[in-house]
What we know:
This protein is α+β, with helices and mostly antiparallel strands. Helices cover 29% and strands 34% of the residues. Strand 27 (525-538) and strand 28 (543-546) form a beta hairpin.
Amino acid sequence: MSIYQWHWKLRSPPSALWESISDTQRVNRAIGQPPWIFTETPDPLGGSLRTGSFRFLGLLPIEWDEHPYEWVEGREMSVVRTYHRGPVKEIVSRVTLEPDAAGGTTLTHTLDVTPRGILGRLLAPLEIGWKTRRAFDRVYREIDRHAVEKVAAFPETRTPPVRGAETTLAEARSRLQAAGVEPALVERLEDHLLGAADRDLLRIRAFDLADRWGADRRRVLALLLLATRAGIVEMSWDLVCPQCRGAKSTSPRLDSLSSEVHCGSCNIRFDTDFARSVEITFKPHRGIRVLEAGDYCVGGPGNTRHVVLQRRIPPHAIVFADIHLAAGEYRVRGPRIAGAGCTVRVAPGEMLRPGVRMALPARRDVEETHEVTPGSQRFTFHNPEAFEQLVLIEHTAWNHQVTTAALVGTVPEFRELFSSEVPPPGTATATGRLAFLFTDLEGSTSWYERLGEAVAFRLVREHFDFLAAHIGAERGAVVKRIGDAVMAVFPTGEDAMRAALRIQRDLARPHQERGGAEALHVIRVKIGLHEGPCYAVNLDDRFDYFGTTVNIAARMQAAALSEEIVLDEELAASPAVRQVLETEPHSSRKSDATLKGLSRTFRLVRVRAELRGAAPRSGSTATGDRGVPTAK
Length: 632
């Protein structure tokens, strides 16, 4: 065996270097590795077995078993590769990051190389001892310079724009600006499509792009949707594994998604879930750039950012692992561990015992929860089995930069521009928790006789425009019109409550202040809203929703009186909605009611929006400063 160990004194702290150092896809590409081909074979014990291959110098076939990476976030990572053929039998790669007294980092990279035959003993000093060291020296120093000076961390591949791309972008620019997109955002998108590295463009995430630009997330999402329609980006729907969180299937259309997908890496099947497993991403249209794709590593920590620790535990062994945990909730799991889960809750507390001890049997029958304080924690893992176990500690929270199909369905631009994008026919797909708002326009039937059909029609039409504008201003979208009523969807109950108050407050203004047909008649609406789990469905080739939550929201509206907003007590008392009610002037009262088609009795909160400075309406309790009142 030959051991090569190199040290670098870097200026940046480990926390500033880890994201780039652990991005093994980019690091391997940057040091000059050719693309690798990986195959995954299901492991009967759980998970999968991974094999990699490439041709050395384009001629000599190299094939190896890729053992699972091990890492502790921010501090170390390692991997073992056992080769089937070629000049090397095995390579063990270890990288450690240690903070130094000056605020920088000592990076140590060790390669334990077991050569095969004379060729291996001759090539190892040249290819690894000299060439590989020089390549890592260049890349690690570039990463450090990037952290200090904010310059490019990697010499990335950037395929040139195709012929005519500038003309296509110029035509799209006019269309986007005519649609109301800020010129500065359009310019930033053009620069990104033309100048970004290929790997940064393969899966553009709207929220990630917005965060890097310091721009509003919904505006950037709307920009990319409009840019898709303008023909400069392509939209795709990715099915994301709930464990490794990698994209396992991609479809250009929502109605083409499979209802069940297999993840070869995790060796599991998972159902389509619009709230978690279906993500919308974008990439440049082929008329702008044709990207170069390739895998240079698939198991490193950069591919699974939600995993903070991954460790191999030998048979019948006890392994200690120290890791710094921030406040939050974590899950401990392994591909060869079935049954009940294990949760680690990290929160401040005086009586919480430091450290976690746990056994890793092949099956867990009892749910296990550990509570520890934030900071450095020692985990003690005992593997009682006769085979190796792989244990992971991961964040349970979903990536906040993922734009799910459930969220996209609440965006007006998506529903307007891509009305043909609907869930697969004949299926009801879970969307997680959403909020729904129903409105009903009072007395509109009589308008056609009293005001004349032309005026009444214009009045109703302008009212729909009024509702759509107010709903869109609070992150919602109109799902459909039902006669003179509207159904709208929102990401949260807080958004729906703000929209309802905005609608009622603006309608409560003296009607002379309102322009258009609204000035001809006093308009009153009744509003109901509710939040909860639901399903997305394809109803007459339209993206619609189904479930008890939708039914309750509609029944809330049916229970409302003139100018009321009706919701149940549980939603009104939720922290986010309660905060809205504490800051917005309104009056409210409570009542018990049974809703049509539902067996239980609901405690309803009946809210009336108030103009600022106006006296409370008779029969209600003013709560603009105190939240929802108790029942009288």
